[in-house]
Amino acid sequence: MLTMIIADDESIVRQGLKNIVRWNELGIEVIAEARDGQEAYELCQQLHPDILFTDIRMPLMDGLEVAMKLEEQGSDIRIVLISGAQDFNYAKTALDIKAEGYVLKPVIVDELYEVIRKVVNRIKLERKQQSEMTHLKRQIHEHFPLIRNNFLRNLASGVYVNEASIQNKLQYFQIPIRSDENLLVSTLQIDDYENRVEKMSEEDKQLLIFGVTNIIEEIVTNYNSGISFGMSENEFVQIYHQSALSNRKYTEISAEIALCLKNFLKISVSIGIGRPIDNISLVHTSLEDARLALQYKFYTGHNSILDISDIDILNDTPNEGIVPTDLYEHENRLMGYIKLGDAEGVAETINVIFDHLCSGRSMTVDYVQGVCFEMACIAYRTVQGLGESMDRIAEERSVVLDAIYRKENIADLKSYMANLFGIIAQYFSKKYNQKSAKVIRKIKEIIDQKYSGDISVAKISQEIYLTPNYLSMIFKQDTGETISEYITKVRMEHAKSLLKSTDLKILEIAEKVGYDDPHYFSKAFKKYSGIHPQKHRL
Fold first, then answer.
1. Distance of alpha carbon 237 from alpha carbon 290, whole angstroms
2. Which end of the chain is more exposed for a tag (fewer CB within 10 A), N or C?
3. Element (H, E) at 489
4. Fold designation for 158-309
5. pTM reported for the whole predicted model
6. DSSP 92
7. Which ranges carry the Response regulatory domain (predicted)?
8. Closest-CA residue to 116 (of 127, 96, 129, 100)
9. What is the residue extent of each domain of the chain?
10. Strand order in 269-273's β-sheet?
């Protein structure tokens, strides 16, 4: 029996709430009443009830203040708030303090029952889950009725088509659905399942699967909405009967399943919802729709609930995204940036490609993954053509292929591809920078040795066996000045030294630093240093 305290500053309201509701039928015992917020808080401290049913507006301390103080202390008391319609907007802050429910005055008994029933079910579910987790090892095999599950799996796979045969099996296995009622199928998957269980022992994996199965079954049973079973290691199917189809109740149930799995097992799940069917022999078609809807998790990401009726699937129209000619153009541009070691260009091109792949979300997952693997293969050939090994720069082809096909959403896939190509581009950037640094050092050595003679970019290029344009480009990029400017600087610095340390004539100094015309030397010196050579001596 759960315990509850009722708090309201009006005695008639407290008595009404206590007497009008058959609390014992809900498994609740009212153990105390409070006239104000302060008394409610003190009673909670003393009696530790399971539920506090409190008005918002009360003397000394209002209901929200009580709830916040209890939350600050880490209390697990469930809070249900009650107040007049005029406080509705104010009461929305109950969401911030994790209130379990909200009831408007005047109280409608059926609505009150529904709110309290949900709170009770959540408490029972949590306690049952905590209790059962200590016994999971012993209960795993006992809680998996294999024959019943095999029937449900075969039914969902379309093996059975005879209605009479299906109805007999439903009765034999005590499955609470009829063969002639309207039904709907949803399917649930644990997000990023392969990575999650990769390092788990088989026992821990089975415990996880059991926990997921148990929580789903509990919630579906509590709602009296249908059945749930495991279709495979990471596919959990729900078949909802007629009562869950009205007002799309199945979406609310799906949301509660996802929330409970997140709270209790700390896992994220995604759910696909199929189309309604009017005959149980068509269960497999609704399941196929649910699986198709779930594929769109690739675009929406983890923790998605996807209804096939809400998805505009363009089966009969061509993809509006990237077309082959565009793709080839982008791939060629991407490979060009890789060759240049341009990481920024690589990132921009990856963004463009994925913007096209995401446009309209009309492309299949297989197509998007295929495009990514094709780009990886082209990159391997490009790198090989440059005399390098992709396996040494990044990862082996098999590892890349496995990574591409294991990504569950397009955001993760884009991040992986951007990182892969970024690593390749950075490798070549570093390689080219190292090569350029050697070339620039050589250029400077030649100039330092031959500045006094007839030296030019063309003559330097002949010694290094590189084109004048290429030499000029990398020198300017690295030093910020042209080769001609550097030659002038070297000559002028030597000229300054000679002017200060010797009595040589201007004509002689000009010749020593590579100028045949002393007048041109004097003009160049003044432009470089701001003064005439003769004044530099003073």
1. 9
2. C
3. helix 483-501
4. Alpha-Beta Plaits (3.30.70)
5. 0.49
6. G
7. 3-120
8. 100
9. 2-128, 158-309, 325-429, 434-535
10. 226-232, 235-240, 184-190, 269-273, 305-307
CATH code assigned to 2-128: 3.40.50.2300
- Residue pair 81/94 in contact by the 8 Å Cβ criterion: yes
Supply 108's token pair.
Answer: 């409608």
**Sign for the pseudo-dihedral over CA of 21, 27, 32, 37:** negative
What are the tokens at 169? 């099996």
What does the alpha-carbon distance between residue 310 and residue 92 come to, in Å, rounded to a whole number?
Answer: 28
Burial class (CB in 10 A: 0-12, 13-18, 19+), 516: exposed
